[in-house]
Amino acid sequence: MRLTLFGKRFAVGQIVITQGAYELPQDDVWYGLVRHMDGDWGELCQFDREQNDLAVVNGGRLVSNYTTQSGNAFWIITEHDRSVTTILLPSDY
Questions:
Q1: Distance CA 52, CA 58 (A)
Q2: Tally of structural domains, the chain
Q3: Is 53 or 4 the better-scoring residue by pLDDT?
């Protein structure tokens, strides 16, 4: 069975998390996922925010960048077809 989740602006599809990101504080990770699903792209420059906003409409890939309370960066990437969202560390990429 596959569960597809929908945020306010787009579907996130199946959610997967890398081992490295799984070791982060889960409250921070899940808060980041909620922000991503709401279209709050985190710590991105204005150009990348605008690219994400266009991708919501045009079906492109969505990338968010967040930092845990302890200072660890992590990314959340939703694929262009909205089938999968991956939570990962920059070093996992």
A1: 10
A2: 1
A3: 53
Residue 3 dihedral angles phi and psi, to the nearest 5°: -105, 125
Phi, psi of 85 (to 5 degrees): -120, 130
Range of the domain at 62: 5-92
Give 67-87 pLDDT, tens digit per residue.
Answer: 999 999 999 999 999 999 999
Q: Dihedrals φ, ψ of 49, to 5°?
A: -60, -45
Q: Which two tokens stand for residue 6?
A: 């929908």
- Stated pTM of the model: 0.91
Instruction: State how far the Cα of 31 lies from the Cα of 90, in Å rounded to an integer.
Output: 18
| Cβ within 8 Å of residue 33, ≥6 positions away | 12, 15, 76, 85, 87
- Give the pLDDT confidence of 8-47 residue by residue, as tens digits: 688 898 999 999 999 999 999 999 999 999 999 999 999 9
Q: How many CA atoms lie within 13 A of 63 on its CB side?
A: 14
